[in-house]
Design a protein that fits this description.
Pfam families: AFG1_ATPase (PF03969)
Keywords: ATP-binding, Nucleotide-binding
Protein name: ATPase, AFG1 family
InterPro entries: ATPase_AFG1-like (IPR005654), P-loop_NTPase (IPR027417)
Order of helices and strands: HHHEHEHHEHEHEHEHEEEEHHEHEHEH
Organism: Paenarthrobacter aurescens (strain TC1)
CATH class of the largest domain: Alpha Beta
Radius of gyration: 23 Å
CATH architecture of the largest domain: 3-Layer(aba) Sandwich
Distance between the termini: 91 Å
CATH topology of the largest domain: Rossmann fold
Number of strands: 13
Structural class: alpha/beta
Length: 383
């Protein structure tokens, strides 16, 4: 008599997908030289459960759809790192965008014949969501009511198309668009965020960007290989393989619509002054375009942050955007200034960027070459 083979249900013979994801993220952490601290571990477990739901809903309709995730907490607590590790291991149709790159793509799609109307905006949002199950949105923040309107449109469309979101932010939803002149106008969108997403706080005690780790896992190795140099003597720069370009190498670049005078530009290196880069009418779109073609940046003549005044506030905000873009694109960055370049200072006077803590955290990844360090190295070499 023929024996009918029996099979265990697939759910019993296959490995738990959530467990596979959490173990994978833990492995990425070990490869990067650290272990997940408790709040990171809890966030990783929540991401893993979310990932299992995403892959599971392709096999059978669940009783209810997964809820999007909103990861928030202070700077440097590993939100982006966790998202990138999870992104690399999630088997789904997915797309990752950074806040600045998102708005560049959104605005670039609204300059056609229908620019300025709701149809063009909707088409841009549709293009960003097209063909994806999960949209990963890094560094979510809102300081401008105009950006808030775009965000509202994105959330509505994602909900209608059943596209799930994984968001990282330094702000809890209630703290978005903190400007009291506009905050009340954004409250309906804040409520929509809390209705659509589960909030996951990552609030460990340490800013992990301020501690060196290896570059074998998700991270920003090229950005970290840059340096902050003060006062920028020829000997200091020469040790780093940097040599100030002569005036004959100066040229004008047009990354988008705004011309920028730079001191040198070749396929690998961009050398530009702080004034030329940040004090004109440059935009984040310019910085993103330049980052696509230059993998090493040198910004010199950087002013002393503590000496900023009201007139310099727009330039410092553009500088903040530059750092965000270069960090996200993993560009090697050298900053050169005559005075002390210290961003761990009070920003409550409104001169320095609102998100100064994030910028200080990111710049802490860069090594430092200052006058005292250079003299100590010379003395050690001489002895």
């Amino acid at each position: 008599m023929a024996v009918t083979p029996t099979f265990k249900p697939a759910s019993r013979i296959s490995r738990n997908p959530a467990r596979t994801l959490i173990e994978g993220m833990a492995h990425d952490a070990v490869r990067s030289g650290f272990e997940l601290e408790p709040s990171q571990r809890q966030a990783a477990e929540r991401l893993a459960a979310f990932g299992a739901q995403v892959t599971g809903r392709r096999r059978a309709l669940p009783r209810k759809s997964p809820r999007s995730l909103y990861l928030h907490g202070p700077v440097g607590r590993g939100k982006t790192w966790l998202m990138d590790s999870f992104y690399g291991r999630l088997d789904a149709r997915k797309r990752r965008v950074h806040f600045h790159d998102f708005f560049r793509k959104l605005h670039s799609g609204t300059h056609g014949p229908e620019a300025g109307n709701g149809t063009a905006i909707q088409q841009s949002v549709d293009a960003l969501l097209d063909g994806v199950e999960v949209l990963f949105f890094d560094e979510f923040h809102v300081h401008d009511i105009g950006d808030g309107m775009f965000i509202s449109r994105l959330l509505r469309t994602a909900a209608q198309r059943r596209v799930l979101l994984v968001v990282t932010s330094n702000y809890a939803p209630d703290d978005l668009l903190p400007n009291p002149l506009w905050h009340d106008h954004f409250l309906p969108t804040i409520e929509a965020i809390k209705e659509m997403m589960d909030l996951v706080e990552i609030n460990g005690a340490s800013d992990f960007r301020r501690y060196p780790v290896s570059d074998t896992g998700p991270g920003h190795g090229a950005f970290r290989s840059g340096r902050i140099v003060s006062p920028g003597t020829p000997r200091q720069l020469g040790r780093l393989g940097l040599f100030r370009p002569p005036p004959s190498q100066s040229r004008v670049l047009n990354p988008t619509t705004q011309p920028i005078v730079v001191k040198n530009s070749d396929p690998e290196l961009l050398w530009v002054g702080f004034e030329e880069l940040c004090s004109g009418l440059t935009s984040t779109a310019d910085f993103l375009a330049l980052a696509e073609t230059h993998k090493t940046w040198v910004i010199d003549d950087v002013p002393v942050p503590a000496e900023g005044d009201a007139a310099s506030a727009p330039a410092w905000q553009r500088f903040s955007n530059v750092v965000d873009v270069l960090y996200d694109q993993d560009i090697t960055l050298f900053l050169i200034g005559e005075g002390p370049l210290d961003w761990d200072i009070d920003a409550s006077d409104g001169v320095l960027p609102v998100d100064l803590a994030r910028i200080a955290s990111r710049l802490s990844l860069l090594g430092r070459s200052d006058a005292d360090t250079s003299m100590e190295s010379e003395e050690a070499a001489g002895s």
